[in-house]
Structures are given as structure tokens and as C-alpha cells.
Amino acid sequence: GPLTRTVEDAALLLAASGEGPGGPLQLPQINLPFELSLQQVALPALQLDLYGSELSLSIPRLQANWSETRLHLPALSVRHPGLGSVQLDGEIEFAGDWPLRIAAALELEAQPPLAPLALRQAQLQAGGDLRELSLEVSASGEQALQLQLQVDALAEDLPFSLQAQADWQLPLSLQPLLPELSAQSPLLLESPLRLEANGTLQSQQFSLAAGAGGLGYTGVRATASGALSGGSLQLQDVSLEDAGGGGLTASGLLLLGE
Q1: C-alpha 204: how far from its chain's center?
Q2: Bridge partner list, 105
Q3: Which tens digit of pLDDT belongs to each residue from 205-227?
Q4: Which of 109, 129, 140, 183 satisfies CB 3.0 to 4.6 Å to 84 for a cystine?
């Protein structure tokens, strides 16, 4: 039968070089001078330290075939005790900007503040290369999600663009997020919620739209756009409009953490 190996624990440490910004990351070409085939490998405990952020994972199953610059993963299972697990297959070419193809099934356990929006299962597709990486996440059912993300994973500031839409069945109370405002008449968020965003790690611009209700109002359409940078949230345009055409608009600056 196939050879099975279990590694009791492993660790990976990635630290900043301390040399300051050096422009886009240049990837090496990795050419294995022999063929490597792993049919059954398990890592019950994997400790990652990514630039000071620690992460604990387990890999119950790994199958891999590596020939020259191409790594094929027929099966890979990764589990995080608080977030959930992922089952994926795909391949990556360790040449150029490392083109890749990944298909994954996600089982999610983490609970967001708005529990009815919690996704239990989702599908992920990744393609392109690390300089022009494209990700798509989809989920269907009572809580549905469509998300597209494009990112340059080799640039230091990670420039990105994002489009997402979430759908759900019943209006959601915002009381867990806004307990003071929702104590007497709960504020409600109504499907669908649409979000567009772009920017870098340092600054982001966004626009979103959703239905809203509560505080004696129904059928209100809410939209907002703004920018987040340096710990401040600039609301450039916030509007609420009811079915009769009445509404209000606002703008302002919010200093986060103060």
C-alpha cells in the first residue's frame, strides 16, 4: 500500500529583512532536479510566524507531485481550530510570477457579529499569477455571497480591487453592532448588500449600498462611500432615501480609536 508519514509538529518563520522597502518582490525560479511524489502526508501541528503574526494550523492530508518547476496538489486539507477547514486541489508553476490554479471548498466555523450572515460552506477559485492574482468566492443558500478580488501579491502595499454582494432572507438587526441606537427600535439591514473597494494596505476607498429599516422607517435605501487611511474614516457621501423620495445626506470625518 502507499507509504504514510506523519510529522508530529513543524514551524515556519518569516521575518522582515530590516532593509526597508525594496520595491516589488522578485520571485526565484525553483526547478527540482528530480520528481517528488507525496501520497499521504499529515501535519497534526503546524506553527506559522508570518512577520510577527502567529498562526496554528493542522494538515490532516497532503498529496503532492513535483516535477521540475510545477507542483501539482491533487489533495490538500488544512484546518484552523477557530476558523474552519479547507479542501483544495490545484497547481503552481515556480517560474516567472508563479502562475497558479486552485479550486477549494471551505467549511467555516467563525461567527461574525451578525450571526445570520455566517457562511457555513463556500467555494473558492484562484487563478492568474501572484502579480495579477484573481480570487472568486461564492456561496449559495439562505446566506449567499459572490465576491471577486484582484490583487498584486508581489507589491509591498498589496494594491487590490474588490466587488462583493451578499444576500439573505430576513431583515437583520444591527443591535449586536449598534446596541445604543438599536435598544428601543432595532435598526435593520435588508438584502442585498453590495460593496466595491479598492486601494492598498495603507489606504482604501469604498462604496456600499443596502436596504435599511427601523426607528419607525421601512423600505429605506442606504448608500455610503468614503476612504479609510491612517486611522481615519472619511465619509464622503452617506444617503438615506425612503420609498416616497424623501431622505437625507451626510458627510464627515471619523477618527478611529479615539
Answers
A1: 15
A2: 87, 123
A3: 999 999 887 666 677 888 889 99
A4: 109
Distance in angstroms (rounded) separating the CA atoms of residues 124 and 145 = 11
Residues paired with residue 93 on neighbouring β-strands, in sequence order: 70
List CB contacts of 247: < 8 A, sequence separation 6 or more.
220, 239, 240, 241
- Would you say the C-alpha torsion 241, 251, 175, 171 has a positive or negative sign? positive
**Owner of C-alpha cell 509591498:** 156
CA distance 170 to 183: 19
Alpha-carbon distances, residue 179 vs 23, 84, 90, 159, 253 (angstroms): 45, 29, 44, 35, 22
With 0.85 as the threshold, say if the pTM is over it: no
How does DSSP classify residue 27? P
pLDDT band at 12 (very low <50, low <70, confident <90, very high): very low
Q: Where are the alpha helices (DSSP H) in the chain?
A: 179-182
- The whole-angstrom separation of Cα 143 and Cα 241 is 25
Amino acid of residue 198? N
Query: How far is the C-alpha of 255 from the C-alpha of 228, rounded, in Å?
Result: 10
Query: Tens digits of per-residue pLDDT, 126-179?
Result: 999 999 999 999 998 788 899 999 999 999 899 999 999 999 887 777 766 656
Please report, for residues 17, 92, 158, 166, 249, the alpha-carbon distance to residue 191 in angstroms, rounded to integers and kept in the order given.
46, 38, 30, 7, 21
**pLDDT (0 to 100) of residue 142:** 80
Percentage of the chain beyond pLDDT 70 is 73
- pLDDT at 113 (0 to 100): 61
